Write a sequence for this structure.
């Protein structure tokens, strides 16, 4: 305690104060806006639209002289931590307006009609002065009214909220943020004149951010800003997917095997790795992990990337555990001798997903077959290849092949040849 008492304490940058006395004041807190818009790292659309919004309100008199009003209802959507709250605060700072943040704990009531009454007081209060009103997690009160799981009270709250938004004067800027835009009522979407997406930052934005942070460090890190930005971007994208695999392993450590029935495949039993470009030594990397099996490898074409390669892997419990360990060691930059081929795989990883219907029949294959069938006569056979991925006993494999043969024959087809 004596040591702590000697340490100077700097107040946090966001200090709160109570708004002026009046009905509705207990449902909001006023935050001193200190975030500058020019300091934000935003996507180009968010930055341009933010500047336009500020300019519209600075030059509101010019707009009104031409019978226009500045836009003042803004919806921000995207994952948490990407700058939605800072964007709203920066708008208030740029315009020199009070920044009010809605307190849901004081707004949402437990009795019938209580929430609407508090909403009315809230909006009556903010109408008394130019301000920025910020609703975080807006889906808490703006949910889809057609949802059968929602109560009648929630639907009444949404309807009342829509009416209040319509009646707000242009000098009150209402900014709503949500991490779950799909939950919002469609009519709520239409009430907002500006809708901005806040996706995960791309590598360039991450590089700028990291450069700002690292420039203040006393020592230069071992990893370059560019490499660190790439690593962080991959971590944000793929960490949840690897975490899901870890949970599956903990839940069912003994049952991670390819089943006979493809429809019964658990997602974790067959994985698809997509990478940017070809990884020549990927097959060798797979062979070094006991139990990990490379089933197929193919090049896929697209407009954006002409050489993505998909790798299908069948892990058992031991192999999956090793795969997770490799991922964690790569993130910690601790891959050991003989594991370096995995560095190329993880660095070029574009997608990791469970094997699903999109991997059984590619769209281009379906279109090709449709064209082939149309070009041929009614009695003319269309040659096609059926590839079965089956890892089980010889007796079971033969039984399944007989089922396929019977199904093809029953539909007027023929098995021309087979190979194993």
């Amino acid at each position: 305690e004596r040591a702590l008492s000697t340490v100077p304490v700097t107040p946090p940058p966001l200090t709160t104060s109570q708004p002026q006395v009046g009905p509705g004041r207990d449902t909001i807190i006023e935050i001193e806006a200190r975030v500058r818009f020019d300091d934000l790292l935003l996507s180009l659309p968010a930055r341009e639209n933010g500047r336009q919004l500020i300019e519209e309100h600075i030059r509101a008199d010019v707009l009104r002289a031409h019978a226009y009003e500045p836009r003042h209802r803004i919806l921000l959507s995207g994952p948490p931590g990407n700058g939605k709250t800072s964007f709203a605060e920066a708008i208030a700072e740029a315009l020199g307006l009070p920044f009010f943040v809605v307190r849901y704990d004081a707004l949402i009531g437990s009795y019938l009609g209580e929430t609407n009454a508090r909403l009315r007081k809230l909006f009556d209060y903010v109408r008394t002065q130019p301000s920025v009103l910020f609703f975080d997690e807006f889906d808490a009160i703006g949910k889809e009214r057609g949802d059968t799981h929602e109560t009648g009270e929630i639907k009444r709250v949404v309807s009342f909220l829509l009416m209040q938004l319509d009646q707000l004067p242009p000098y009150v800027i209402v900014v709503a943020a949500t991490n779950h835009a799909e939950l919002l009522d469609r009519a709520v979407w239409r009430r907002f004149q500006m809708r901005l997406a806040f996706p995960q930052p791309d590598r360039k934005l991450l590089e700028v951010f990291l450069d700002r942070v690292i420039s203040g460090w006393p020592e230069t890190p071992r990893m370059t800003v560019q490499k660190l930005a790439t690593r962080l971007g991959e971590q944000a994208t793929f960490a949840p997917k690897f975490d899901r695999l870890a949970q599956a392993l903990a839940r069912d450590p003994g049952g991670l095997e390819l089943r006979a029935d493809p429809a019964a495949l658990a997602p974790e039993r067959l994985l698809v790795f997509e990478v940017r470009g070809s990884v020549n030594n990927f097959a060798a990397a797979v062979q070094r992990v006991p139990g990990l099996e490379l089933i197929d490898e193919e090049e896929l074409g697209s407009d954006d990337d002409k050489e993505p390669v998909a790798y299908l892997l069948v892990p058992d419990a031991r192999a999956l555990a090793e795969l997770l360990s490799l991922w964690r060691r790569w993130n910690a930059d601790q891959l050991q001798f003989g594991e370096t081929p995995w560095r190329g795989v993880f660095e070029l990883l574009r997608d990791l997903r469970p094997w699903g219907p999109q991997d059984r029949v590619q769209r281009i294959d379906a279109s090709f077959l449709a064209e082939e069938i149309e070009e041929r006569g009614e009695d003319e056979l269309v040659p096609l290849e059926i590839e079965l991925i089956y890892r089980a006993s010889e007796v079971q494999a033969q039984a399944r092949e007989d089922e396929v043969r019977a199904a093809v024959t029953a539909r007027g087809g023929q098995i021309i040849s087979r190979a194993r």
Q: What stands out?
A: Residues 1-21, 255-268, 300-306 have pLDDT under 50 and may be disordered. The chain has three domains: 10-197, 225-360, 377-410. The first helix runs from residue 2 to 5.
